[in-house]
Design goal:
The complex is a heterodimer. Chain A is an alpha+beta fold. Chain A has helices at residues 2-10, 13-16, 28-38, 67-72, 86-91, 107-112, 123-137; strands spanning 40-50, 53-64, 95-97, 104-106. The model of chain A is unreliable at 10-15 (pLDDT under 50). In chain B, the strands form two sheets. Chain B has a two-stranded antiparallel ribbon. A two-stranded antiparallel sheet of chain B has the order 3-4. The chains are: A alpha+beta, B alpha+beta.
Amino acid sequence: MDGTTDQMRGKTMESTTLTPEKDDSSGIAGAIDRILDKGLVINADITVDVAGVELLGIKIRAALASFETAAKYGLEFPSGTNLETAAWKEAMIEKEECPQCGKRVEREELLNFACPWCGWESAKAKKRKKVGVRVEVQ
Amino acid sequence: MVILRPEETGLKQLLERILNKGVTIDTSVRIDLSSLDLLGAKAHIILASFKTAEKIGLDFPEGTNLNTPAWQNLTTNQPCPVCGMESRSKELKEKGCPWCGWNYRPDER
């Protein structure tokens, strides 16, 4: 028992307090996530001819993306999709993944202030804070 | 000091790299039977991420709205060489990365 508590004491505050971290998403889930986020274009032209006569021609123009990415890039949705719901409006807001916790946060907020989930601050936000402090001192 | 982007290996990075570069598959098959052209097939296939597709001018499916702000961001934004987060090219060059603070001319900041 004592050994474990000593160990706990020995650890710094940093390691015992909860620090949100992005999970290691280098596996297949991370890869799929990334592809759907970036969007994938598949274009193909296929022709088949028999005895010199063109018999069949296939032209494929396909785009593969997550709902959010599709909405952002203005891809056409199947007829009957209601694009007035709150979720679609939210999808149009530019978002970015927090580098620390991986949550998707509104880009402007993350860049200019901090991540509302884990408190991570960008260089721009830190710089801005510094300038703010200096102004207060003057 | 050399700073490299973390986790440059793995499936995720591999796929991202492949789609960033774009993949082209060009094939043609010809089947002859006693010097008679019997069957022929040609296929031109291209696979790329949206960004690359836009850059090299690929066709998008009919009905795609190419005037959304996201399309403009594709051409004006650039990833930071250190953290990989995207920001305006001009800002990145002149003021440094707003995300991680990287700047290739730190004395002028």
